[in-house]
Structure formats: C-alpha cells, structure tokens
C-alpha cells in the first residue's frame, strides 16, 4: 500500500512539473525574456500580485494573449507598440503606462532597432495561470 501511495505521489509531482515547464516554455518566445520579480498575496482573499520584467530584443513581438486578472504595464526602456482588443494600437515610450483589463486579448511588439523593456504587474486570482496564449 505504501508503494502505491508513493507511486501515486510521484506521478502527481511529475505531472505538476510537466505542466509548469510547458506553461513556462509557451510563455517564452524567441527574443523575449521574462524575469519574475515578486509574487505576494493581497489583502483581498484569494488574490495575489505578480511582477515581472519583460525584455524585448529589437524587432520582436509577444503574441496574442490574455491574463485572468488586470495587468498594469510600465515601459522601462525603449518603445513598445501594444494592440489591445477593441482599441487602436498604442505606442508607448519609457516612462509611459498602460492598463489592460482582465481577460482582454492583447499583444506587444518592439518595432525598433533597440532593445525595449517593460515592468508588468498582474493582479490575479491565486491558482490561475498568469498568462494564457491565444491561437
């Protein structure tokens, strides 16, 4: 019985590890590096905040995706173009911000010859993936 419980726990752990690796791999796109900076529980039960730095090489794009919660973007360096579903594209330079409501499909692109970076702050329900790629 102990062997069966151990085997079941091992399979569960491996399944969870495969899910984490798959979701991390799908979140990474060529020429784009995501660095998770912090994750903290909020005072609102069941919610957390996640901050990440996203670095874009010249002429790269992060495809259409959404988040299960709000995203607040602050452009750190360079110039980035954002396409948010239902809105005209907007181009932001360092020091400018953008708010994206929960579940809204959007994408980001660096059209310049230089690197660009953003600080993304997500306010999301705990247990849900921070990022959902669209096909």
UniProtKB/TrEMBL annotation:
The keyword Signal applies. It comes from Flavobacterium chungangense. Residues 54-117 form the Cupin type-2 domain. Residues 1-27 form the signal peptide. This is Cupin type-2 domain-containing protein. Keywords: Signal. It comes from the Bacteria. It holds the Pfam family Cupin_2.
């Amino acid at each position: 019985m102990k062997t069966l419980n151990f085997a079941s726990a091992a399979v569960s752990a491996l399944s969870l590890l495969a899910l984490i690796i798959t979701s991390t791999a799908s979140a990474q796109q060529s020429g784009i590096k995501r660095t998770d900076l912090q994750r903290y529980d909020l005072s609102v039960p069941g919610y957390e905040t996640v901050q990440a730095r996203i670095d874009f090489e010249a002429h790269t794009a992060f495809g259409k995706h959404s988040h299960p919660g709000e995203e607040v973007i602050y452009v750190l360096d360079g110039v980035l173009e954002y396409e948010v579903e239902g809105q005209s594209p907007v181009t932001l330079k360092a020091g400018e911000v953008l708010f994206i409501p929960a579940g809204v499909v959007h994408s980001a692109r660096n059209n310049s010859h230089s690197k660009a970076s953003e600080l993304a702050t997500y306010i999301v329900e705990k247990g849900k993936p921070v990022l959902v790629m669209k096909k």
